[in-house]
Specification:
The protein is of the alpha/beta class and 363 residues long. The chain is built from 15 helices and twelve strands. The strands form two sheets. The chain has a seven-stranded parallel beta sheet, with helices on both faces. A five-stranded parallel beta sheet has the order 2-1-3-4-5.
């Protein structure tokens, strides 16, 4: 009887070196994908991969033909040994889930470990915009300041918060805002009334949310459903005193429509961690507006989150190659075909998660 091959995992980089430390003692061949090497060398590595920790869109943006290293139909077709692919964080727009499912490839993300960092960043945007902290800082540095009353801000206490997407990040944001006594509106088609009641939030349609909210927080993933979710009509429906904040993905909102709303006074301001083009060009017109606070997609980048994500990433890969169901599987319909493919390539059949494991994955 032939020995099972050692599974090969290809990664571009870890959020923290601890991932490499964990996987070093596992029976897994870990290989780094060098984005600066030739495409020929890169494909030689990828075509032998059983698992791929996918490079981020920002990582590949400055590399010629960098998008080829994202998991689209071409990569799926070319890398016929692939069994599983994982994104670095909660977002998974770098992976074509349908193409992977058709090919028997499991798709996972790392939702959860970075939620605290992103939720705190989102709350930081709310406080900054309401209290006009960045605006005041800019004015102070320009000097002389003049009348301080022109920098008068507002408070969060008693305001209405609208959260689009009540996942790990949106849910944690709701908890963080509890001390402010805010009314919380939520738009999420995958949340039921019982869950909403348990979280102390009110489920509404997007139209009602944007009309009533003083702060609109977008924390949903980028999918076919959410692409272009916020456009001119949604910004026009918001209060002139309201703020738009997003830590999701740039294509969820229309940047030109947002710019128009901010420039015309249709909304009071915006806190933006994500953009259509990343890395962000310094001539992006949104950066010229005083009522915009912007960060370069760093909401989830903290020392603690980077380590937590790396540990979760490495642990999930261990689970995958041990033949167990990964804890953050995004395409569960793939499981029967995935098991057949896994058995054909690695020589043994994965087992489905037990009821106890399934329960722990949902917590």
């Amino acid at each position: 009887m032939s020995e099972s091959p050692c599974p090969r995992l290809v990664y571009e980089r870890w959020t923290d070196p601890v991932a490499g430390d964990i996987l070093e003692v596992a029976d897994i061949d870990v290989v780094k994908l060098d984005l600066t090497a030739s495409a020929e060398d890169g494909w030689a590595v990828m075509e032998s991969a059983h698992g791929y920790q996918v490079a981020t869109r920002t990582d590949v943006a400055s590399i010629p033909d960098g998008e080829q290293w994202l998991v689209g139909p071409a990569l799926v077709e070319r890398c016929d040994q692939l069994l599983a692919v994982c994104s670095a964080g909660a977002g998974y727009d770098v992976i074509d889930i349908e193409a992977c499912t058709r090919a028997g490839i499991a798709v996972c993300n790392n939702s959860g470990p970075g939620a605290e960092a992103v939720a705190e960043h989102a709350l930081g945007f709310m406080l900054d915009l309401a209290k006009r902290i960045t605006v005041a800082d800019r004015a102070l540095r320009r000097g002389p300041l003049g009348d301080r009353l022109t920098l008068r801000g507002s408070q969060l206490l008693g305001k209405t918060l609208g959260v689009v997407g009540l996942g790990a990040i949106g849910g944690r944001l709701v908890e963080l805002c509890a001390p402010f006594g805010m009314e919380i509106l939520v738009c999420d088609p995958y949340v039921d009334e019982a869950t909403a009641a348990e979280r102390g939030v009110t489920l509404v349609e997007l139209g009602e949310l944007v009309e009533r909210s003083d702060f609109v927080q977008v924390t949903c993933p980028l999918t076919a459903e959410t692409r272009g979710l916020f456009g001119a009509a949604q910004f026009a429906a918001m209060k002139p005193s309201a703020f738009f904040i997003t830590t999701a993905r740039g294509p969820v909102h229309d940047e030109a429509a947002l710019h128009d709303a901010l420039l015309s006074g249709g909304i009071a301001g915006a806190g933006l961690d994500v953009f259509h083009e990343e890395p962000l060009r310094p001539d992006n017109p949104l950066l010229r507006l005083e009522n915009v606070v912007a960060t370069p997609h760093i909401a989830g980048i903290t020392v603690e989150a980077a380590r937590d994500i790396a540990v979760a990433t490495a642990t999930q890969w261990q689970v995958i190659f041990e033949g167990r169901m990964p804890p953050r599987l995004l395409n569960p319909d793939v499981w029967p075909r995935y098991c057949e493919k896994f058995n054909a390539i690695l020589g043994f059949r994965p087992r489905a998660a037990s009821a106890l494991e399934k329960a722990s994955h949902t917590r």
